[in-house]
Design brief:
Strand content: over 45%
Order of helices and strands: EEEEEEEEEE
Structural class: mainly beta
Helix content: under 10%
Oligomer: single chain
Distance between the termini: 40 Å
Shape: globular
Largest sheet: 6 strands, mixed
């Protein structure tokens, strides 16, 4: 059974940092591209960042480029999102996803950026 569990969210002031984690199970993680999505309050979900199975490529939404870094640890089946210089518009529920298994979503982790 595919399981995705996000953690690491919280409340921070603008300019702060957070590191999100996602532990995955139930599928061959080392062969799967992974992504982070987010859903701001009252808005649609949006793609934040993606990483290839071997970490050779990573892509970012324009809104988070140069501030967020996606990474992974295949032996530990972990996905990370380092978020720096956070802005109020980064406030959202963040989800890790498996693009090849789009029906599976975790419960997400809340990130709130506010002064």
């Amino acid at each position: 059974q595919v399981q995705l569990e996000e953690s690491g969210g919280g409340s921070v002031q603008p300019g702060g940092s957070l590191r999100l984690s996602c532990i995955a199970s139930g599928f061959p993680f080392e062969w799967a591209g992974m992504s982070w999505y987010r859903q701001p309050p009252g808005k649609e979900r949006e793609l934040v960042a993606s990483i290839s199975h071997d970490s050779s490529t990573a892509d970012y939404a324009d809104s988070v480029k140069d501030r967020f870094t996606i990474s992974r640890d295949n032996p530990q089946k972990m996905l990370y999102l380092q978020m720096n210089n956070l802005k109020p518009e980064d406030t959202a529920v963040y989800y890790c996803t498996v693009p090849s298994l789009p029906r599976y979503w975790g419960r997400g982790t809340q990130v709130t950026v506010s002064s």
